[in-house]
Specification:
alpha+beta, Tetrahydropterin Synthase, Chain A, three-stranded antiparallel beta sheet, rod-shaped
């Protein structure tokens, strides 16, 4: 739009040419919005509201009469209120770079004044106090020209090679050096102790190494000695293992064979033996009963002896008939009758002998209480 002006965010629009302005200001101040400037009747200019800085390097004399060079940086700007803009516009609108120069001069004067009331020790150790006193001293003067200070930083303080600051720092350096020496001595002591401990550890390690080496050499010698015999020893061990395996196999085969024998022979044999024992036990019981019966009449043994001699008696009787003239009339029946007669004769003779023997000889008792039989000769005849 023709004649409409809008200032930048960091600018103030100054419009002059009117007769009456609010508050009696010589010109109209527009900040943050636009305004219509009538050509030929109004004139507009812009004043910066941006942050600016000014450096100060001033030689000052302290309360002690010692010259020090102080370097500082001031950050400032035109105030945002209308009064500050008016004051700054009236002074710097035509040459706005003058704000930095004038600000530096103002702060240089206040810096000399404040430093002159302080000692070097205070200046060095209390820089923030120095900055605050300079700000407080220049605040009213800066406000008159429409400027406000955001910060003041003391960059450096130099005693111009007088050696005062170095001398002031000497006790602290000495203390620090002393502490450093003490720390170094303690470090050296710890290092020496560590070295001694290391030497002891090395000696112990060497001793243990010697022991280990001796043990290792002994083991190596033993291993070499065993290695010299490894061939025969290995062969012998292999043979022994083969023998052990064969013995183990034989034992297993024997156990297997034993189990087979138990299943095939022993068990049937035991069953058969049990059968025989039962039969023998029954036979023994029967013999016991017979023995008790023989002991009761003392004639069983004698009868059995005579019965055993019966064939011999019959033979003798038959021998007596051998030379006799005997006729058998009725064939087989007659021969049978003859044989029966011979047997009957033998029985008669046997009975006669039994009677004679029974009247002449009593049975003899054996050591176990059973009846003892008469002694016999080799051909079965009784001994005389």
């Amino acid at each position: 739009m023709f004649g409409y002006r809008v200032p930048a965010p960091d600018q103030a629009l100054l419009i002059s040419g009117g007769r009456h302005w609010r508050g009696g200001a010589p010109f109209r101040v527009v900040v943050g919005h636009g305004a219509v400037v009538v050509p030929l009747l109004r004139k507009s200019r812009y004043l910066t509201l941006a942050m600016q800085e000014s450096e100060v390097a001033e030689t000052c004399v302290t309360k002690q009469g010692i010259s020090v060079n102080v370097r500082a940086v001031i950050a400032f700007k035109v105030g945002n209120d209308e009064e500050s803009v008016v004051n700054a516009g009236q002074r710097f609108l035509s040459d706005q770079d003058q704000m930095s120069t004038l600000t530096g001069r103002i702060f240089a004067g206040h810096l000399r004044s404040i430093v002159g009331s302080m000692t070097v020790e205070e200046i060095v150790t209390e820089r923030q106090k120095l900055a605050m006193e300079v700000l407080d001293g220049s605040k009213a003067e800066m406000a008159k020209i429409g400027l406000i200070v955001d910060s003041l930083q003391i960059q450096s303080i130099d005693d111009m090679n007088s050696g005062y600051i170095d001398a002031m720092a000497a006790p602290h350096r000495a203390t620090i050096q002393q502490q450093a020496q003490i720390a170094q001595a303690m470090a050296n002591q710890r290092a020496a102790e560590a070295e001694q401990e290391s030497q002891r550890n090395q000696a112990e390690y060497a001793r243990q190494t010697a022991v280990v080496q001796a043990q290792y050499k002994a083991e190596v010698d033993k291993a070499q000695a065993q290695s010299a015999q490894v061939g025969p020893l290995t062969q012998a061990q292999a043979q022994q293992q083969v023998i052990d395996a064969q013995a183990d196999l034989a034992q297993r085969q024997a156990e297997l064979r034993q189990r087979q024998l138990v299943a095939e022979v022993v068990k049937p044999a035991e069953a058969e033996a049990e059968k025989v024992r039962i039969i023998a036990k029954a036979e023994a019981e029967r013999m016991r009963i017979q023995a008790e019966a023989a002991a009761s009449n003392n004639r069983v043994a004698l009868d059995r002896m005579l019965i055993d001699q019966l064939p011999q008696i019959v033979k003798e009787a038959a021998g007596g008939l051998a030379g006799a003239n005997v006729n058998v009339i009725n064939g087989a029946d007659g021969l049978g009758e003859l044989a029966a007669g011979m047997v009957g004769q033998g029985l008669t003779i046997l009975n006669s002998i039994k009677k004679n023997l029974g009247s002449e000889q009593e049975p003899r008792a054996s050591a176990d209480g059973q009846a003892a039989l008469p002694d016999r000769t080799a051909d079965g005849q009784p001994n005389s």
